[in-house]
Design a protein that fits this description.
With about 130 residues, this protein is mostly helical. It is built from four helices and no strands. The protein has one domain (about 5-130).
Length: about 130
């Protein structure tokens, strides 16, 4: 459970799940929230780009599952550091969205997703720091 391979597998699953979010769920949410055709087009395209990037990240994490422990620790430390920044941005944007649009909960990242981001971030950093070199 505390091996880099497991962390890369979890990160692969998390980002692969985002492909579903961006490609399947996003278009229906866009139609419900945005009135203008241009705005809907831009929001859908942003979702498709996000889904494509998530797929590329998931594939990269999948391919990193079998690297040596020393390199995996360095990569996980870098990924964990970037995820800390991502969590801070997500929390800040959620607070801003809640302040500007208090009656539109679909605009913000759902709380369970934020909690999963935080857990994955802590897990990634913990494994990066505590894994013993072979």
């Amino acid at each position: 459970m505390l091996k880099p391979k497991m962390v890369f597998t979890m990160l692969t699953a998390w980002f692969a799940f985002h492909v579903f979010i961006f490609w399947v769920i996003n278009p229906s949410g866009v139609e419900a929230l945005i009135d203008g055709q241009k705005g809907q087009f831009m929001a859908r395209m942003t979702g498709y780009v996000g889904g494509t990037l998530s797929m590329m990240i998931a594939y990269t994490f999948f391919m990193l599952r079998d690297i040596e422990i020393e390199r995996a620790k360095k990569i996980l430390l870098g990924i964990g550091s970037i995820m800390v920044i991502a969590v801070a941005i997500i929390i800040a944007s959620n607070m801003s969205a809640a302040e500007k649009f208090p009656t539109e909960p679909m605009i913000a990242t759902p709380l369970p997703a934020v909690v999963l981001w935080i857990i994955l971030t802590v897990y990634t950093l913990y494994v990066a720091i505590t894994t013993k070199s072979s």
